[in-house]
Amino acid sequence: MNNLPEKEYFASGHNACRGCGPAIAMRWIAKAAGDNTVIAHATGCMEVISTLYPYTSWKTPWIHSAFENAGAVGSGVEAALKTLYSKNRPNVLMIGGDGSTFDIGFQALSGAIQRKHNFCYVCYDNEAYQNTGYQRSGATPKYARTTTTPYGKVVHGNDTWQKPMPLIIAAHGAKYIATASVSNVVDLYNKVKKGLEIPGPAYVQVQTPCVPGWGINQASTIQVAKLGVETGAYPLYEIEGGKVKMTRKLEKLVPVKKYLELQARFRNLSEDEVKEFQSRVRYWYKYIESLESKGKVFP
Ligand SMILES: Cc1ncc(C[n+]2csc(CCOP(=O)(O)OP(=O)(O)O)c2C)c(N)n1
Ligand code: SF4
Ligand SMILES: [Mg+2]
């Protein structure tokens, strides 16, 4: 895709941290959606930094939903647009962070998919509740240090692995599911566009490093996200018509240590913990890859 629009729909001047991964993603998600779109946006960092009253960064109709109900608000908008428009109907885009999507807003999203509304839901995944001070979420990797999962003598960071959300959404029967990385914004743009164009529920989950939450250098956001992909920690794939397709095939996985060592949240890991992390990453990457050869694996 070389015809990327020059027009911006997410304005600069917001107050995200320097190097904020989610803010970079917002720009490309908004470009993909264009201005014939209504956005239902859950509370979280991207809502807070973009809508400081009386200003807004959004050049599209935009509704602030509660933390838990972007899925329900977007469903209502879609139902209303269906009766109001017979042609040129606006897109419905829902946006939520990982805490909103994986945990507290999950029921609203789950219901919206089951009711087969026509929308694209984008989860920007910065792997914790970053806005309220870096607490762990259902998307936080094991051993990550967060403010609710410190790394000390007794507790070694977070003790759970991420929920496999794209597969959980696929099992709901969503029409299109994709993972993306802020290190490849053209791929992100194309996937969001596709999600909006395909009739029915679509879900795109984009990995977006958070500078203070992950403890990374503000200039290394894209490098860290790139390593997330190249180590296999964040596999890139699409699920369409129930079939899985890897959109970035890795001949060889870069050792995950290279990804972990750039992030202060993993600073304390023992050698055994890095090994466990590596085998978990390899297992999931190979598992997703194995689904590709199986044809239709989801409803
Ligand atoms: C019901 C409810 N509980 C808690 C909060 C406080 N709160 C606001 S944003 C937020 C964290 C959001 O996390 P996530 O969805 O991952 O987005 P991020 O801040 O990481 O971008 C929390 C806990 C709230 N607004 N509503
Ligand atoms: S705390 Fe993280 S997600 Fe929030 S604005 Fe800063 S870098 Fe972005
Ligand atoms: Mg988050």
Give an account of the 3D structure.
α1 (21-33) crosses α7 and α3 packs parallel to α5 (106-114). The protein has helices at 21-33, 45-50, 70-84, 98-104, 106-114, 165-171, 185-197, 211-214, 221-230, 257-260, 271-292, and strands at residues 37-41, 62-64, 91-97, 119-125, 176-181, 201-207, 237-240, 243-246. The protein is α/β, with parallel strands linked by helices and 299 residues long. It has one domain (21-292): Thiamin diphosphate (ThDP)-binding fold, Pyr/PP domains (Rossmann fold, 3-Layer(aba) Sandwich), CATH 3.40.50. Helices cover 37% and strands 14% of the residues. The structure holds thiamine diphosphate (TPP), iron/sulfur cluster and magnesium ion (MG). Thiamine diphosphate is lined by residues 22, 43-46, 67-68, 96-100, 126, 129-132, 137.
Any descriptors?
single chain, Rossmann fold, 11 helices, 8 strands, 37% helix, binds thiamine diphosphate, binds iron/sulfur cluster
Report the span from N to C terminus: 29 Å
Structure class = alpha/beta
Mean of residue pLDDT? 97
The succession of helices and strands, N to C, reads: HEHEHEHHEHEHEHHEEHH
CATH architecture identity: 3-Layer(aba) Sandwich
Sequence of strands across the biggest β-sheet = 2-1-3-4-6-5-7-8
Low-confidence stretches: none
Question: How many structural units, i.e. domains?
Answer: 1
Beta content: 5-15%
- CATH domain fold name: Rossmann fold
Distinct ligands, ions and cofactors found in the model: thiamine diphosphate, iron/sulfur cluster, magnesium ion
Helix count, DSSP H or I runs of 4 or more residues: 11
**Mind telling me the CATH superfamily name?**
Thiamin diphosphate (ThDP)-binding fold, Pyr/PP domains
Shape summary: globular
| Sheet having the most strands | 8 strands, mixed
Cα radius of gyration in angstroms: 18 Å
Helix proportion of residues, in percent?
Answer: 25-40%
The strand count comes to 8
